[in-house]
Amino acid sequence: MKPVKHYYNYYKNGQLEYEGWYKNGVRHFLGGPAYKQWYENGQLRSEEWYENGGRHRLGGPAYQEWNMYGQLQIEKWYENGICHRLNDPAFQEWFPSGRIRVIEWRVNGVRHRLNGPAYKEWYVNKQIPYEFWSFKGIKYEKEEHPFNIFREEHSLSEIYEEWPNDMKVLFEVVYT
User: Fold this and answer.
1) In 3D, which of 40, 45, 48 has the Cα closest to residue 66?
2) Is CATH 1.10.1740 the right assignment for the domain spanning 5-143?
């Protein structure tokens, strides 16, 4: 088994520019980020968690990016190289002011959300110009979303009993 190797580079001013770890030719590090990058002023720019070449982190975002003043700009959750998070957004992006710009729910790499839009994007003036609902990666208008149609005709306990087995875990997280 090959050991984990460390690599890094410095700016001309002596500030660390980036550092990372890899194993068998791919980014890999257990228990911390496998790649970090800094601005020339020393402010952390990005942090990425990898396991065996795929972005991966349990219980936290696998990718985070900050602006040069230290404000979080982007956050992405991954498991085993796939953008994924149950019951919360898997991707978020903020304006420089700190207000949310984009939120997106993904399960196993596809846009999916049962109880609201799977994608929302805001303009600087706080208006929502674009949002859509998605079920297993298929985009719907709110009124056409399969869960909303089914919910109008059945109680929550009936929905659970009729729901496909692969979706029961999501249902339990959202509605119980």
Assistant:
1) 45
2) no
Three-state SS annotation for the chain? CCCCEEEEEECCCCCEEEEEEEECCEECCCCCCCEEEECCCCCEEEEECEECCEECCCCCCCEEEECCCCCEEEEECEECCEECCCCCCCEEEECCCCCEEEEECEECCEECCCCCCCEEECCCCCCCCEEEEEECCEEECHHHCHHHHHHHHCCHHHHHHHCCHHHHHHHHHHHC
Cα torsion at 152, 153, 156, 157 (round to 10°)? 180
| Full-model pTM | 0.79
Model pLDDT, residue 36: 98
Q: How much is the pLDDT for 31?
A: 92
**How many Cα atoms occupy the beta-carbon half-sphere of 97 within 13 Å?**
8
Q: Which of 57, 93, 96 is nearest to 75 (CA)?
A: 93
Q: What is the pLDDT of residues 28-38, one digit of tens each?
A: 999 999 999 99
